[in-house]
Amino acid sequence: MKDIPGPVDIVDIFRRPARVPEVIDDALQKEGIRCIWMQEGVVNPEAAKKAEDAGLPVVMDRCILKEMARLL
After folding, report:
1. Which of 38, 58, 61, 67 has the maximum number of C-beta atoms within 10 A of its C-beta?
2. pLDDT number for residue 5
3. Given a cut of 90, is residue 1 above it in pLDDT?
């Protein structure tokens, strides 16, 4: 993630829950990230807490597409 130029609005995680901590660790190395989003079925409370403790809002076990449709 460090190789991505510029800011990142959302880190959208669609991985097995056991793999989420490494994604969070990678995301925390990148400046400018505004939110962590874990898709439906992706639940890892420990990784979510680590991101929240670092000041990032976390959405867990939700589909972005479904949430956008619901809001629009």
Report:
1. 38
2. 86
3. no
Q: What CATH number should be reported for the domain holding residue 33?
A: 3.40.50.720
Sign, Cα dihedral of 7, 43, 16, 49? positive
How far does the chain reach from its first CA to its final CA, in angstroms? 30
What is the domain extent for residue 28?
10-71
pLDDT band with cut points at 50, 70 and 90 for residue 2? confident
Residue 4 lies in a domain: no
